[in-house]
Amino acid sequence: MTQFRIRHDTVYRYTEPVTLCQNVAHLKPRPGPHQTGDPSAVTIDPAPAVLTDRPDYFGNPATYFTVQEPHTQLTVCVRHTITVRPVPPPAAADTPTREAVRDGLRGGRPDWLASYQFAFDSRYAAVGPFNYPQLGSIVRGRGRCRRAG
Questions:
Q1: CA 55 to CA 62: how far, in whole Å?
Q2: CATH number of the domain encompassing residue 43
Q3: How many other CB atoms sit within 10 Å of the CB of residue 65?
Q4: What is the pLDDT of residue 96?
Q5: Is pLDDT above 70 for 134?
Q6: Residue of higher predicted confidence among 145 and 73
Q7: What pLDDT is recorded for position 47?
Q8: Is residue 114 scored above 80 in pLDDT?
Q9: How many domains does the chain have?
Q10: Which band of pLDDT confidence, cut at 50, 70 and 90, is reported for residue 108?
Q11: Residue 95 lies inside a defined structural domain of this protein
């Protein structure tokens, strides 16, 4: 079992005052059988007039918020404590044979193969570990986080 403390800060700066901003943010981890977490602490400055958490279409936690006062900077800070438990490998007897997989693919495109489309690089994201050190200086240590509400 491994525990992670995660901090994510985002700061938006505007050249002109923004009088109304409506946001959908995916800030919280999705719980699962091998990943659980304490309630996330979300702070937004300026404080939102509307703040709602609900799952999106795919079941991922989403935070909807609206800031209804003029502002030239928006700061969103999130803190999580996540516990991850190792996933035991399946027993060999519970997995399909190579031949069964081959035969299943010959019969058409099975439902379980649909997610394969997300295994490739896209125009905006590369497959693999997050490795963009230049972004650290953009978000680290900027803005002030206050408890919303």
A1: 5
A2: 2.60.40
A3: 22
A4: 85
A5: no
A6: 73
A7: 96
A8: no
A9: 1
A10: low
A11: no
In a domain, 133, yes or no: no
Cβ within 8 Å of residue 123, ≥6 positions away: none
Structure tokens that stand for 3 in this block: 């525990």
Whether residue 132 is contained in a domain is answered as no
What CA–CA distance (Å, rounded) separates 28 from 78?
A: 8
Per the listing, tokens 């200086």 go with 137
DSSP string covering 3-68, please?
Answer: EEEEEEEEEEEEEEEES-EEEEE--SPPPBTTEEEPPPEEEEESPPSEEEEEE-TTS-EEEEEEE-
What domain range includes position 52?
2-88
Q: How far apart are CA 72 and CA 99, in angstroms?
A: 61
Strand 61-67 to 50-55 pairing: antiparallel
Closest CA to 24 of 45, 47, 53, 59: 53
Of 136 and 29, more confident: 29
Residue 94 domain-assigned (yes or no): no
Question: Is residue 43 within 8 Å of 77, Cβ to Cβ?
Answer: yes
Instruction: Return the higher-pLDDT residue of 143 and 38.
Output: 38
What predicted TM-score, i.e. pTM, was given to this entire model?
0.61
